[in-house]
Design goal:
Elements: H1 4-20, E1 21-30, E2 33-44, H2 48-57, E3 61-65, E4 77-82, H3 85-95, H4 103-116, H5 130-147, E5 160-161
Antiparallel strand pairs: 1-2, 1-5, 2-4, 3-4
Helix pairs in contact: 1-2, 3-4, 4-5
Length: 168
């Protein structure tokens, strides 16, 4: 059982993920095959919540995306992201009891991370089996479907494809 302080931190993180967070499986083209990267992210123009979640969980990384040339009066965007599977599992388990709006997405991502784990497939030495590749593609497509109700209009892909429920 979590103590009250820890529980408060996880409730806060879940609330931010429900409103401004994104659960996704990104698909990258690598030569003749795809790689699938599970991750969560939060992007905001104010870094207060992001810094708090990073400090509270000790997970993920923060990057600052500069001002876009097409929007010279815009502010920089702060982005916090977790991509390591073990860290994702810890984070998802921490927020899962408190999510309200995106619990289905978090559950799907958690199931994916637990099933894929640290399998050595996909390396140069151990090719990914057809079953494993099919599972990853189906999981990617399911995440796109779960996020599809809020995905904004997009432009042509830049080698990476992902479906995110945030309008970033």
């Amino acid at each position: 059982m979590q103590d009250n302080q820890s529980q408060t931190h996880w409730i806060y993180a879940a609330a931010i993920m429900d409103s401004d967070g994104c659960f996704m499986i990104a698909r990258y083209k690598r030569g003749h095959r795809y790689d699938y990267l599970p991750n969560v992210k939060i992007a905001m123009i104010n870094d207060g919540s992001i810094n708090y979640i990073k400090k509270m969980t000790g997970l993920g990384n923060i990057i600052i995306n500069g001002i876009r040339p097409s929007r010279p009066k815009s502010l920089p965007m702060y982005e916090w992201r977790i991509t390591k599977r073990d860290n994702l599992i810890d984070f998802l388990n921490g927020i899962m009891p408190y999510l309200q709006n995106k619990k289905d997405r978090a559950k799907h991502l958690l199931d994916y991370c637990e099933k894929v784990g640290h399998k050595p497939y996909g390396t140069r030495h151990i090719p990914m089996t057809k079953e494993e590749l099919n599972y990853r593609e189906e999981s990617y497509q399911m995440m796109r479907e779960l996020n599809s109700n809020k995905v904004g209009a997009t432009t042509k892909s830049r080698e990476r494809e992902s479906a995110c429920d945030s309008l970033l």
